[in-house]
Amino acid sequence: MINKKGMTSIELLVSFIIVSIIVVSIFNSIMSYRNKEKVEEIYNEVDSYSNNIQKTIQDDLIMGHLINVNVINKDETILTFDNPSNYETKLILNSKEGIISYGKTDNIIDYTIPKIADLTLSTKSKIEYLLDKNYLKIEIIFNHPNFTNKTYSFIITCPINYIY
Amino acid sequence: MRKTKIVNQKGFLLVETLIVSVFIMGIFSLLFTNIVPLIGEYERYKNYNTVEATYIAHWARMIALKGLPTDIYTKTASIGYIDISDCNLYQENNSSTICQNFKDVNNITKLYLTTYNTVEFKKYIKDNNSFSRDFKEYIDYLPTYSKNTNKTSSKGYYRVIIEYKANNTNKYGTMEVAL
To answer: Helix or strand or coil: residue B136?
Structure first.
């Protein structure tokens, strides 16, 4: 008596071919999404770091009431505030070491950029005192080969001696 | 001698194979068309209401509070929105120069004062073809804030909406304004 259970080899072959076609057609999409996921992880870490830096500096700029900016060079500046009383803070952008340092002059804290391969703090990051506009502008730029245009940047701006 | 043909009943019919293939392709197309637009939306939303945008909107609020005369707020309450990017509107406390400096330093391209509830503004933007797609999409994304009935123009609540350019990308932020 012939056993009618099981599959014929042609059925197996056809099923295998159909599954292979589906897998190959979506393989490229899946690989590109995996790469995207890795890039997004980098963006998330850099976003988190940037948000922390912005909040730290902006808290002083807004609540401390910025009254003076003493730009030592494009990477170093001293900010003077008068609320609740006069105090100074120092901001240093160290592109070589990948560190942004900020804090009151006797308590400067180093904020090291995330330890991600190929992520650097750009030498184009700068601190500017726009004399004609009476504005402080801090531009911080990160470089990484996977970023759009290979850069990620944000700005921190504040009018100087703005009367509330 | 009569030859009888024995039909082999194993294997698939071509019709069965085609039906299954069409069914699987249909499911994949459905998944694809529902999931791929979400990725595009995420890419757009990355530029909305970032920390940077929120702090810039904070300064827009400060300058609006200090520089705009009361009649601008009255007008906004009746129409629902006003374009306040023209620094000549900032007549109080010599704020015209401060406004211009703020716009230049932050690359502000649009600045609107609206009622706290953005329903009228959303209607205006939706029907108006003079605005860019990016801006329309941001305004469409914003909630109406209509559920909070404690915050109305009569109680002195408004909203600033900003658009600014950074790294050749338009970014957006909004901030509540309380008189």
So the answer is: helix
B59/A153 touch (CB, cutoff 8 Å), yes or no: no
d(CA A118, CA B93): 49
Min Cα distance A51 → chain B (Å) is: 6
Q: Which of B21, B93, B101 comes nearest A159 by C-beta?
A: B101
Residues 6+ positions from A23 with CB-CB distance below 8 Å: none
H helical segments located in chain A: 9-63
Name the residue facing A155 among B11, B17, B166 (closest C-beta): B166
- H/E element holding B133? helix B133-141
**C-beta atoms of A156 and B105 within 8 A:** no
**Burial of A126 by CB count in 10 Å (0-12 exposed, 13-18 middle, 19+ buried)?**
middle
ipTM score over 0.90, yes or no: no
Q: How far is CA A159 from CA A66, A124, A138, B108, in A?
A: 8, 22, 12, 15
Residue A154 contacts B, CB cutoff 8 Å: yes
Per-residue confidence of chain A (164 residues) as pLDDT tens digits? 566 677 788 878 888 888 888 888 888 878 888 888 899 999 999 999 999 999 999 999 999 999 999 999 889 999 999 988 999 999 999 999 999 999 998 999 999 999 999 999 999 999 999 999 999 999 999 999 999 888 899 999 999 999 87
Residues in chain B with CB shorter than 8 Å from the CB of A162 are: 62, 98
Residues 6+ apart with CB under 8 A from B157: B115, B116, B151, B176, B177, B178, B179
Coil, strand, or helix at residue A162? coil
Please answer yes or no on whether B11 and A50 come within 8 Å at the CB atom: no
For B80: left if phi > 0, alpha if psi spans -120 to 50, otherwise beta; the answer is left
Does the CB of A11 have a partner CB in chain B at under 8 Å?
yes
Q: Where are the domains of chain B?
A: 13-46, 48-178
- H or E stretch covering B66: helix B51-67
